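User: Can you predict the 3D structure for this chain?
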Amino acid sequence: MTNETLEPISPAEAKEMYLNARKHEVSQSTLDGYHYRLKHFIRWCENVEELENMNDLTGRKLQQFKTWRRDDGDLKPITLEGNLDTLRVFIRWCESIDAVSEGLHDKIVMPILKKHDEQADGILNGDDADELLSYLRRFKYASRRHVIVELFWQTGMRLGALRSIDVTDYDPENRSLLLEHRPNSDTPLKNGEEGERLVALTSEVCRVLDDWIDHNRHGVTDEYGREPLLTTENGRIQGSSIRDEVYFVTRPCFYGGECPVGRDPDECEATNYGHYSKCPSNVSPHDIRRGSITHHLSNDIPEKVVSDRMNVGMDVLDIHYDKRSEQVKMEQRRAYLENV
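Assistant: Here is the predicted structure, written as structure tokens:
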């Protein structure tokens, strides 16, 4: 297709059309991810390249964007790959609406990742988790923060799954939680119906949930008439609030540790509301999930069991979540071999 047969459209308009076209095909969190990654391309088009028409996009310009994005903020290879992968799908969609030349998406050269590039760094390790949970169980027992960390660590579930739980999804007799995909009432699961499952709980976690429900949970319903397990005074807790709670409690200065980088807590900006994520030593909800999965694997829980419990594919489990050292893996294999 030549430029003469293309139909003019600005990069920003093309992006909005793309997001609108995909909004009924993917979850809101996935759509938000597309928006976040594509906004850098739009920024480059408008402020750097001054490209006003997608028709003028070429393979050479895409290479220039790749270089700019790599150097803009010194991106890790895995982050750059994610940005370019989203852009590649977007450009292919633009081909279908006659916005760019046919086959242009194939001219995006993806970075070659080494094994260590494919792995994220953030993780809550077992020792830190033990200290944090010991503190919460003693000083913040059955608080919302305690429940959040307890469930994240014990189940390794995703943030969206945690937020989706209703009081009726908790079965204290069978010591289990039901995770159900309910997109029509604002609680989708990342993998849709394939992410639905029953999650077994320990007796200790059940005691925490019982006391939370009986004494500290706000007795409210959400806008759909459901009774969320995790609540604020106004209804179901938002994902951003869960994230803030995790950033707050995983700061070493919160649960009794000294600041690893020597900051004075009275002067540190990460102690101020809205800035907890600026702590250089705390972790995100996904880092707790990664730590939980590694903890389960390190305690000889079979990979298939962990895969099913955490709703993560075996290949993804190996690349992105299993942070055991090679020494630990070897010793675990040795234990099995000694019984052969």
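The domain at 3-118 is CATH 1.10.150.130 (DNA polymerase; domain 1). The first helix runs from residue 11 to 22.
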